[in-house]
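Hi all, posting the design record for the shared folder.

TITLE: backbone redesign
STEP: 1 of 1
STRUCTURE INPUT:
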């Protein structure tokens, strides 16, 4: 135990020293090579004395508005990047020596993300470095069991699909072990089910939690016949309820559900250890849990948002970048012995519903009906909601809408909101640009965050 503590303390000190050294080096680089950051950091202390708290918070809309001055290279103006992104045939194809992806735009305008080749090497390197024996065995076992399938948005340059293609291009040998079949999330559920059934020996599926919920239901009805050993999820919050439901629906799930926390801005943000905690890769990433005033919140407290600093991307600087997720650092250290701090992620502020003075999680609504394939609640005005339903085959619309509207109104009433209107919508439920499905779409542009 003494040895474990000693390593832990030594580990923390080493991590923090490494973090500060990397931060100061990044600050020096962006002051020299990014016109935007040169202006932003004009009045700061010298780079070799700078502390994290000296640096101003940055946000997506401001950075995107000055994209051409943001990067530390001058060879990729925004119009060139956008032109590349409109060509769907070039997903995962680098421009010059950088890779370009887009975010899904869950919380507003999609951002353009630029990664250098060294970042890609870092992302794979750090993933392998943090692997425990358990992970190595898991990857080997799952690979022997059958195919790995990625189900994500296919109609854009999203990291889910594009990153695999990029690695295949840069390092075919490395990519060989990660060979994947890609299934487009936007196609009708029936087609996705047929495709998976046709593959047969699906061992590992990488997808969004919203797609996982659909797969669980298809498995429960018996239409989906695959028996995967492992799911990996990302891009949305995986709830405990969904985790339990999926485990019940798929008894074959020997390795459970891995749910690392990451984002397009930083793919290798955290790793999930053998005890199921999400540890932040703090030598290359700084995460700060902060309140509405951007002041740090204590460990064990849920933050209003989180600031991300990516120390490994020197081409497109993300420094104290407001990510919009609510997180909570664990107070106690993990039994796995890792000196890297662990977090719990409560999801995006952008998905919370605000009515009057009340804030509701999308999870409080029960948007399921055995006569419906997909149900979506859309906030059209502060007090006005519209329900969109994709009915099951042969279902009568009237009673389904009636029952779901009654259940939604009951939730509002339970939260003291008696004057909310919930109407029957004509349109079908809609997807985000990257093929994610959100059961609840809150009113856009109501807060400061877009
Ligand atoms: Zn751990």
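Okay, here is what came back for every position:
SEQUENCE:
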């Amino acid at each position: 135990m003494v040895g474990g503590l000693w390593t832990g303390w030594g580990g923390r000190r080493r991590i923090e020293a490494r973090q500060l050294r990397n931060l100061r080096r990044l600050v020096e680089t962006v002051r020299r090579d990014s016109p935007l950051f040169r202006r932003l950091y004009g009045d700061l202390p010298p780079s070799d004395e700078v502390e994290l708290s000296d640096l101003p918070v940055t946000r997506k809309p401001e950075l995107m508005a000055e994209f051409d001055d943001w990067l530390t290279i001058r060879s990729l103006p925004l119009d060139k990047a956008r032109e590349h992104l409109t060509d769907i045939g070039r997903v995962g194809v680098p421009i010059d020596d950088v890779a370009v992806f887009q975010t899904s735009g869950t919380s507003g305008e999609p951002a353009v993300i630029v990664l250098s080749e060294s970042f890609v090497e870092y992302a794979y390197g750090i993933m392998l470095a943090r692997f425990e024996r358990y992970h190595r065995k898991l990857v080997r076992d799952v690979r022997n069991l059958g195919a790995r399938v990625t189900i994500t948005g296919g109609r854009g340059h999203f990291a889910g699909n594009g990153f695999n293609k990029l690695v295949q291009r840069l390092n075919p040998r490395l990519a060989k072990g990660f060979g994947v079949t890609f299934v487009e999330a936007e196609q009708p559920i029936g087609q996705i089910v047929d495709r998976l059934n046709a593959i047969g020996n699906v061992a590992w599926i990488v997808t969004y939690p919203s797609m996982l919920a659909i797969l669980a239901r298809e498995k429960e009805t018996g239409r989906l016949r695959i028996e995967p050993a492992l799911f990996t999820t990302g891009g949305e919050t995986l709830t405990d309820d969904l985790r339990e439901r999926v485990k019940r629906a798929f008894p074959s799930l020997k390795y459970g559900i891995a749910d690392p926390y990451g984002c397009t801005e930083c793919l290798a943000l955290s790793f999930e250890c053998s005890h199921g905690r999400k540890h932040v890769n703090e030598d290359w990433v700084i995460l700060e849990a902060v309140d509405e005033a951007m002041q740090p919140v204590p460990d064990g407290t849920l933050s209003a948002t989180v600031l991300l600093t990516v120390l490994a991307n020197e081409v497109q600087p993300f420094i104290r970048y407001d990510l919009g997720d609510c997180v909570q650092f664990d107070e106690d250290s993990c039994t796995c012995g890792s000196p890297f701090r662990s977090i719990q992620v409560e999801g995006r502020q952008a998905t919370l519903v605000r009515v009057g003075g009340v804030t509701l999680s999308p999870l409080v609504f029960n948007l399921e009906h055995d006569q419906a394939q997909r149900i979506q609640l859309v906030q059209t005005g502060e007090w006005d909601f519209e329900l969109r339903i994709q009915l099951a085959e042969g279902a009568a619309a009237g009673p389904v809408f009636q029952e779901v509207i009654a259940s939604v109104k009951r939730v509002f009433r339970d939260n003291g909101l008696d004057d909310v209107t919930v109407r029957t919508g004509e349109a079908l439920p809609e997807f985000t640009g990257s093929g994610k499905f959100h059961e609840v779409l809150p009113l856009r542009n109501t807060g400061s965050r877009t």
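COMMENT: Residues 1-9, 445-450 have pLDDT under 50 and may be disordered.
Let me know if anyone wants the other runs.
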